[in-house]
Write a structure and sequence with these properties.
The chain is of the alpha+beta class. The chain has 3 domains: about 5-80, Uridine Diphospho-n-acetylenolpyruvylglucosamine Reductase, domain 2; about 85-200, Uridine Diphospho-n-acetylenolpyruvylglucosamine Reductase, domain 3; about 245-350, Uridine Diphospho-n-acetylenolpyruvylglucosamine Reductase, domain 1 (Alpha-Beta Complex). It has helices spanning about 40-50, 105-115, 135, 210-215, 225-240, 260-270, 285-290, 320-340, and strands spanning about 5, 15-20, 30-40, 60, 70, 75-80, 85-90, 95-100, 140, 145, 150-155, 165, 190-200, 245, 255-260, 275, 280-285, 300, 305, 315, 350. The strands form 6 sheets. A 5-stranded mixed β-sheet has the order 1-2-3-6-4. Strands 7-8-13-11-12 form a 5-stranded antiparallel β-sheet, with no helix packed on it. Helix 4 (about 210-215) crosses helix 5.
Amino acid sequence: MPFILTTFEYMLEPIVENQSLKPYNTFGIDVPAKFFTHVKKTEQLQELMEWKRFRDENKLILGGGSNVLFTQKQNALVILNEIKGINIENEDENSWLISAGSGENWHEFVLFCINNNYGGLENLSLIPGSVGAGPMQNIGAYGVEIKDYFEWLDALHLATGEIHRFYNKDCHFGYRESIFKNKHKGEYIILKVAYRLPKKHKLNTGYGAIQQELERLQIDNPTIKDVSNAVIKIRQSKLPDPNKIGNSGSFFKNPIVSNQKVEELKSKFPNLAYYPIDDKHSKIAAGWLIDQDGWKGKTFGNYGVHKNQALVLVNYGGAEGKQILELSTKIIDSVKQKFGITLEREVNIS
């Protein structure tokens, strides 16, 4: 059982030891944290840094826990980020600059924008996780990535307590990549993220099944709300609800390969699912590769590959993180042998 170590003036929650992380990760993996606490404001973080053990302990920042697979006890101070608040930073004739606390639920932030007729993020509806996780992963869906609208973020440096502002170019965004996943991994906790959303917004309905869904709903002149609803319906039809079945959404990245490789694969697999991204490269649907390799819907006791989306690995209840990790390794090896492509995990392994 967890027990209280200490409390601070600003802390709404104590620091506890051996706290189960099962409620704080969407895979529902039950592992303990050496130390655990919540933070709801920047002042709490700054005071937390004064704790005598802070500098000596490893730190792990959790938001929605939707992009992590725990495979062992977390020998760290786990900090659950619950920093909230949505604000209009400024407005000009062309755009709104809207910021959100990093602990805000991402989908709820998207809905806030939609309900206020701020277009741009509607294709990213129903992505699980927190606002703070967005720039770390450069989350994306249906032809849109957050880097397309990202303006800046404020982050607290865990070694010095200084707050630094990172603009778009500073973040080195790539496909599900940013500077916070490599060079600065584990060095910062994101506090607030700002997006610049244009007043003259062009809807993006040409990617995936959005247009088909709009046609099915008999919508000829869609609004941002219509696009959001279409995306939600598509995602709900393919992806399991983590509140019902443990999962982290897409477990693997869609591999980017040369167009020459695409042509080689098409000669063997004429129905190859791929999307050109420039004159020399294309993105292949990892879910298609996994499905064609026979993994879709396979179960192994209390875990497996989801029946509707091969990209999603699931915990039906009581599975260990290391079991799901081993399954992902088997899938990677199998796809490599069949297609000559090495899949990369999108989920952080801890």
